[in-house]
Amino acid sequence: RLALIENLRRVAVRIAAARRDRDLANDWADRMVKVVEQKPTDLILVLADMARTNPNLSGAFLAELTRHLQGQNPNFAFANSWLEHRLADQVLTIEQVVHTEGQAQAVDQVSIGNSINSLRFLNSNDWRLFIEKHSLVERTLTGDPSHIYAQMDFATRNRYRRAVEGIARRSKFTEYDVALKAVQLAENHASDNPEDRAAHVGYYLIDHGRPVLECLVEMRLTPAVMLDK
Question: How far is CA 40 from CA 46, 59, 75, 159, in A?
Fold first, then answer.
C-alpha cells in the first residue's frame, strides 16, 4: 500500500510540474499574441525577455506554447525558429519533445489508474491473507513438525517470516531455502523428541537454535549482529 501511495505521489509531483510549465507557457504566449497585435517588431523583445528567464523547455511548456502559436500570425514563425534553435543544442526537435510529453502523460494516466485499482483491491481484501496465500515461505513454514506455526496469529507468523528474510539477505541462500532448512532442522529433532522446543521451527528462527541455522546457510555476520550475540 505504501509503495502504491508513493507512486501516486511521484506522479502527482510530475503532473504539478507540468501544470506549472503549461501555465508559464500560457503567460508567454499571451504576451507574444498581444505584442504582435500591437507592434509585431517588438516580438523579438519578448523573446529576449523569455531567453533571460531561461524557462525549462519541457514537453509541457513547448506543447502549450506551440498550441497557442500554431496557425497564428506569420510573425510567430520567428518564435518557433528560436525554440527550435534552443532545442538543437540538445539534438532535439519541438515535435520530439511534444511527442515524448504526450507519451509521458499517457503512462502517468495508466499508472494512476493501476495504482488506484490496486488500492481498491487492497481495501476490499484482507491483504494479510493474500500475502500468506501466495507466500512460498509461508507454505514452507507451515510444515513445522510441531504444528505450532499454523496456529499462531498473523503478527507472530510475520515475525518468523521476517527472520527468514533477514537471514537470507545475508547468505547465498534464498528465503525459501532458509525456511526449508529451518523446517528440516526441526524435523530432525522431532524424530527423537517431538515434544522438545527444538522440534518447533521458531527455535531456529528467533530462539537459541538460530546460530545453528545461520551456520548452516553460511550467513554473513555484520558487526551489529555480532554485538547482539
Answer: 10, 27, 7, 73
- Whole-model pTM: value is 0.48
Burial 178-207 (b: 16+ CB within 10 A, else e): bbbbbbbbbbebbeeeeeeebbbbbbbbee
The confidence score (pLDDT) of residue 223 equals 59
Which grid cell is 218? Answer: 553460511
Q: Domain segments of the chain: what residues?
A: 2-121, 130-228
Based on its alpha-carbon atoms, the radius of gyration of the chain, rounded to whole angstroms, reads 31
Mention every residue, 6+ apart, whose C-beta is less than 8 A from residue 72.
Answer: 33, 36
Burial class (CB in 10 A: 0-12, 13-18, 19+), 100: middle
Instruction: Report the amino acid identity of residue 25.
Output: A
The pLDDT value recorded for residue 40 is 85
Residue 187's pLDDT is 94
Three-state SS for 135-187 is: CHHHHHHCCCCCCCHHHCCHHHHHHHHHHHHHHHHCCCCCHHHHHHHHHHHHH
Residue 105 CA neighbour count, 13 Å, CB half? 14
Measured distance CA(154)–CA(18) in Å, rounded: 44
Q: What is the dihedral of CA 213, 218, 219, 224, to 10 degrees?
A: 100
Nearest by Cα to 25 from 62, 54, 72: 62
